[in-house]
Amino acid sequence: MFSGFGIGTVDCCLNLFVGNLKYANQLLGVMHAFYGLGCLVSPILSIHLIEVGLDWNQYYLLLFGFATTAFICSAIMFRNETKWKYMYMTEQKHLKEQNEDDGIPQEQASMSELLRNRYVLFFALTLFLYLGSELCAGIWFFNYLITIKKVVERSASYITSSYWASLTLGRFALGFVTGHFFENNEVRAMVLYTGLISGGCAGFWLFENYTSLQVVCIDFVGFFVGPVFATSMVIAIKCLPARIGSGGVPVICGLGAAGGAVVPWVMGNIAEKLGDGTSGSGLVYFPNMMFTTFASAFGLWFGFYLLNRKKLENYEKL
After folding, report:
1. Which of 73, 284, 38, 271 shows the shortest CA–CA distance to 165?
2. Hey, what domains does the chain have and what are their CATH numbers?
3. What values do phi and psi take at 21, rounded to 5?
4. Predicted TM-score (pTM) above 0.90
């Protein structure tokens, strides 16, 4: 629990910090790619250490060493990034927006106002669907291959790893694509990416009798899923006013992260309670679930773009 809280806090701080820098899409893409790389390497490393004689819980000593090293490096490299500097930069951003609004003073939004803001709720809902669907695919795809497709465990593990590898590659590569071709037009990139993801999920569903084609489709989905989180954060930071954005981004991350718990849980209930009554038989509906959640995210982004197209093209705050 504490490790998850720490990762979420660090991730939110990085999004706020990097999102305000030049080349935000590229930087966030690279950082999130290394996060995905860690997800890919860690299971392999832990299994190797167990095979050479270490107890399973001794792996946490290695993680402790990595975390300590990261803490020391962060303390040194970011020693000048103080709360006073952040408060000053935020105040300057507020003053700039006040001047653009004829000098009308604006106070920092309260938590209740953030939770009522439709744009904060929109970003939170899209992240809820995205994070939930991403983790649902990573968690249940392995079980789907074994239970429904009758794939042997070793092959199923390799296929599942290919999904995470595609996701990591997408985070790295598409961050540069977004930054180069969609700078200040990231919403268009999101509509494109989520549309392609929905198409990949449709293929994953339609080709359910062809396992090899399903693998191609799920890797295609993983590639375009990769940049969605980072790009969503860049859009939120750029589009929301400073009085909303500074407090709104942590709220968006927090509410959106709940999807990682809810969507896989829903799929688990479907797996156990539907189907022919045998354990896990409901996983036959796994492709339907992936298409429904990812397509819903695409529908939200497409509607958001149509409703706010004028403001987005004029680079106005929402």
Report:
1. 38
2. 2-307 (1.20.1250.20)
3. -95, 165
4. no
Distant-in-sequence, close-in-space partners of 243: CB < 8 Å, separation ≥ 6: 94, 97, 106, 107, 108, 109
According to the model, what pLDDT value does residue 137 have?
A: 87
Residue 6: per-residue pLDDT:
43
pLDDT tens column, 23-44: 666 777 777 777 767 767 776 6
Q: Which residue has the tokens 């680079």?
A: 315
Name the nearest CA neighbour of 156 among 135, 138, 181. 138
Percent of the chain with pLDDT over 90: 18
